[in-house]
Amino acid sequence: MKKIIKIVFYPFYCLLFRLLQFRHLRNFYYCVFKYQSYKLLLANDFTTKNEEGVQVQYYHRKNVNFPHPVGVVIGRQVRLGMDCKIHQNVTIGGTVGKDGQPTLGDNVMVYANAVIVGPIAIGSNVIVAANSVVTQSVPDNCIVAGIPAKVVKYLDKSESKKSGV
Question: Where in the chain is the domain with CATH 2.160.10.10?
């Protein structure tokens, strides 16, 4: 009985209980709040100016799409082309001991857990497969995969339009 009274009347537990009850009853509002706060956190990560003065608006102007923006790391000097799509847990940046950052062309699709490092250039209409590590420059219109990433297939114009690249 003491335990029940302590839990019910102890302010922290009471507040926690009410919050959980509210979340359960108002799951829709909780999800909206969570999404809005996540957008705010994402915006705060990108709003700090880097050496080139790039802010969150840079990614919107370039029409860069983050379908699942969890664990995405983009270096300060990375240059992105138009209409890039970057999935979760992607790392794009420089390597230790080398100057320069990657440059991605237009319509590049980078899938989950891919790593693009070093002063390299990724061509336009390129698909970087999941779990790939790209350490060398990649030509236009191709699919790269593997560790280290190699060109698996070259895309012609009809294939690149079908795949969304």
Answer: 56-162
